[in-house]
Design a protein that fits this description.
heterodimer; A: mainly alpha; 12 helices; 68% helix; 4% strand; B: alpha/beta; seven-stranded mixed β-sheet; 7 strands; 40% helix
């Protein structure tokens, strides 16, 4: 009896009608995040005035840079609320593009890679985001006319686009087409020196900076339902898909912050000292568990934010946290391999975008595909 | 027209090359200077000029090769926009040497951007300097000779490519040097080359 009650509590959506609308829930979540960040900024300001004997100024600087980066991401989220989702896609395109620039800048490429890289920057990167923005296009039905930037398009054009969308070309453009293209194009140049290494670097760069990150704005176009219990088919969900993006981004940031704090407080067993001297197993586990609890609490209090059941929200939050750490570890490994401290240091004066988005890059595609696997509804 | 396209061109060059500028041991100043830099790309002169503060751009003229920048109306227009001082590399006369032209064109207001290696070097390491810098320092001892190291622009637009790649580049400007009294030509040129090379390391930390 008790176990049934608990499972009902965990698995079923709150039975009461949603008190806050989905968009309001997103605003509330963003508001909380901004308020927390503002507090952190004040703490950072306070700490940077301390003497060196109290706290290492390098840690304070790293902390302040991190908080500033999160603020930037919150600005992107606020824009998401205020403007059409096309703008969000564009903003993420800018982030991707800049991350690619940083990645390729610290990577050693050869003269023969120039034209391949030009394709990657000028064709594949924008095309990926164009495909995301086109995800909303459906096959022409009765009287529906495709409007893009104020222009009306013909039905045959709309049909062509809807076929691309229905095939989900955005999920294969980079893993299939770009990956093979890069390998072949560099082979055609005839420069065999470190060939394998060079293609791998470019393929990895576009996979992480563009493909993975593009799954975050793609969440806005996801048609998801919600499950009343685990074994039923998903049914229509009236919520706002922006809630999913907010849930992802804010929890990634929260988890990163918690990881940072737990490492400082009781980090004993460093995961890989040669890769990252601070990330510890204790931090990883505590941050993941706390993020899971917070994810579930968010789902309870702001029921309209995602279509997940509370237990689902907790599992997703756990996954987001672990993936976020994996992302930071991977990027640290690449940096150590290249012998740089931060992606921004080669070119000082630029804030390093890649250092800020590495966790989102890893969490976004997994979050997107698991959500889609369990909750997608076919219209 | 030039007043409008000049800043636009500068902004475009900065966006495409992702250039940031660092002044190490010196500050931007309107006094007469000669910036001497490593030369790895056609974009060098344009990007270095574009990265300077607006006030300095107005009084700084890049010295560039006539055969390249006079090729075609677009390049000629661009060279005009950034007020380039074009030198014909083929016709170097004894009477009116490039150094004489430079000093003449500088007058008492302008600063110059020069690339003392002569041509672009595809390998990326710094070639020995041509003697022009020495004669500039000898004839105008009041000029501040500023070493400049340009990072990564050879990857943005390598020799032989037409389209630039939007990577990030960096320009480091170091402390000025002067020709010391009685300093031998080769000693001075080596010292100038060292000054540029030292900035390469500064950029890596």
């Amino acid at each position: 009896m008790l176990s049934t009650n608990i499972s009902n509590l965990l698995l079923a959506q709150a039975e009461t009608p949603e008190t806050v609308s989905s968009a309001t829930a997103s605003w509330i979540l963003l508001g909380i995040a901004v308020a927390m960040l503002a507090t952190l900024m004040l703490i950072g300001r306070f700490l940077s005035g301390r003497s060196e004997s109290v706290i290492d100024p390098a840690i304070v600087r790293a902390f302040n840079r991190r908080v500033a980066g999160w603020m930037l991401i919150c600005v992107v989220l606020a824009m998401t609320m205020l403007f059409p989702r096309g703008l969000t896609v564009f903003l993420f395109f800018i982030l991707s593009f800049w991350a690619m620039r940083e990645f390729i800048t610290i990577t050693s490429t050869r003269r023969a890679d120039h034209r391949t890289l030009f394709w990657v920057f000028v064709i594949f990167t924008p095309l990926q985001y164009v495909l995301i923005a086109l995800m909303s296009v459906q096959a022409p039905g009765n009287g529906t006319v495709l409007h893009l930037f104020g222009f009306e398009f013909s039905k045959s054009f709309q049909l062509a686009i809807s076929k691309i969308t229905a095939y989900d070309v955005f999920t294969i453009l980079i893993p299939v087409y770009a990956t093979l293209f890069i390998a072949a194009r560099i082979a055609f140049t005839g420069d065999r020196k470190r060939y394998f290494e060079r293609i791998a670097k470019i393929q990895f760069a576009i996979l992480i900076c563009v493909y993975a990150l593009s799954h975050a704005p793609a969440l806005l176009y996801l048609k998801v339902g919600r499950r009343v219990d685990v074994f039923s088919e998903p049914e229509a969900w009236s919520g706002d898909p922006r809630g999913l993006l907010f849930f992802l981004v804010i929890l990634v940031q929260f988890s990163e912050l918690m990881h940072f704090l737990f490492d400082k407080m009781f980090g004993r067993h460093v995961i890989a000292p040669n890769i990252n001297s601070t990330k510890s197993w204790e931090g990883l586990i505590c941050a993941a568990c706390l993020t899971a609890v917070v994810g579930m609490l968010i789902q309870y209090t702001l029921a309209g934010i995602t279509p997940f059941m509370p237990i689902g929200a907790a599992l997703m939050a756990f996954l987001i946290s672990v993936m976020g750490t994996s992302g930071s570890m991977t990027m640290s490994a690449i940096k150590r391999d290249r012998g740089v401290q931060d992606y921004g240091t080669l070119v000082t004066g630029h804030a390093s975008i890649l250092d800020r988005i590495d966790s989102i890059c890893f969490a976004a595609p997994i979050f997107f595909h698991i959500t889609r696997f369990f909750l997608q509804i076919t219209p | 027209m030039k007043a409008f396209t000049g800043p636009c061109l500068a902004a475009l060059a900065k966006v495409v090359s992702g250039a940031s500028i660092r002044w190490v041991g010196c500050t931007p100043d309107t006094c007469q200077r000669v910036y001497f830099a490593n030369h790895t790309s056609h974009l060098d002169a344009l990007v270095l000029w574009a990265s300077l503060p607006r006030k300095l751009r107005a009084i700084t003229r890049p010295v560039a090769a006539l055969d390249y920048w006079n090729g075609g109306p677009i390049r000629r227009y661009m060279a005009n926009c950034f007020n380039a001082l074009l030198i014909d590399r083929q016709k170097v006369k004894r009477r009116n040497t490039p150094v004489d032209i430079m000093i003449q064109e500088m007058g008492s207001d302008f600063s110059l951007i020069v690339f003392p290696e002569g041509g672009r070097n595809p390998a990326g390491d710094l070639q020995p300097f041509k003697s022009g810098l020495y004669y500039l320092g000898k004839k105008r001892p009041d000029l501040e000779l500023m070493p400049v190291y340009i990072h990564n622009l050879n990857r943005v637009m390598p020799k032989g490519e037409v389209l630039p790649l939007p990577l990030l580049s960096c320009i480091t400007i170091g402390e000025p040097i002067w020709l010391q009294s009685g300093e031998h030509k080769n000693d001075f040129l080596d010292r100038a080359r060292e000054a540029v090379l030292n900035l390469k390391e500064v950029g890596q930390d």
